[in-house]
From TrEMBL:
InterPro entries: NTF2-like_dom_sf, SnoaL-like
Highest classification ranks of the organism: Bacteria, Bacillati, Actinomycetota, Actinomycetes, Streptosporangiales
Domain of life: Bacteria
Domain SnoaL-like per the UniProt entry, residue ranges: 14-106
Name this protein carries in UniProt: SnoaL-like domain-containing protein
Pfam families according to UniProt: SnoaL_2 (PF12680)
Transmembrane intervals: none
Amino acid sequence: MSKYDISKLHPVFQRQMEALDALDLEAVMKNYTDDAALLRYEGVSEGIEAVRETFAGYLTLKPTLVELQEYIETDDTIFYRAIMNLNGEPEHAFGTLVVKDGRIWRQTAGFGS
């Protein structure tokens, strides 16, 4: 069980977790600015269409939040570590969301132990 109540966390993080849980690509994309960039070890997705393409692939893995292990935020930055199920298999996830005008402007995301 998570030690964090998601309903009390940054509203952008709440919306992102809800959209991912619903596997709703359009809801996910509403969380990003048009000039968003998503940095992963696999590469950088720069611009809204590249971010859309990345998330279209990611949602096929049916990501589900299992446990939010660590979380800290400021007004414009969110840093987290979690366990996510991808295709039913637990994966350690971590990342940063930088928020501009109420949406995600920059994001880092990775998986590993």
